Amino acid sequence: MAFAMGTPLLDGCVLAILQREDTYGYALTQQVKSVLDISESTLYPVLRRLQQDGCLSVYDQPYQGRNRRYYAITRRGQERLHQIRLEWRQLRDSLDHLLLKEGTEDE
Q: In what order do the strands lie in the sheet with 23-24?
């Protein structure tokens, strides 16, 4: 069974990876794909939106005669990631309580 991947959770995954280090698009996609079933075409609109929202900055760096576009998390992106993590913990705790709670003896 696959669970739907909402925008905030996907944003959080991207921002969490970029919090560790600046990364170029293909490598970032591969890291996300290693844990989520998404296509490469799904991630580039997310990157563009996060950049437009001021959560990411971009820069080009030469690599084997070409330029690679790297993404870096901004202060606003750090703040957004912090908020997503808070919301994730609340959701996770609520779902754990609902889904993993054992029946009581009264039932």
A: 23-24, 66-73, 56-63
- Does 103 map to a domain? no
Q: How crowded is residue 57: how many other Cβ atoms within 10 Å of its Cβ? A: 15
Domain count, the chain: 1
9-18, 35-44, 76-85, 98-107: least confident range: 98-107
Q: Which residues is 31 bridged to in the sheet?
A: none
Residue 74: band (very low, low, confident or very high) from pLDDT cuts 50, 70, 90: very high
Helix (H) / strand (E) element for 2: namely none
CA angle at 59 for the pair 56 and 60, rounded to the nearest 5°: 145
Task: With a cut of 50, say whether residue 101 has pLDDT above it.
Answer: yes
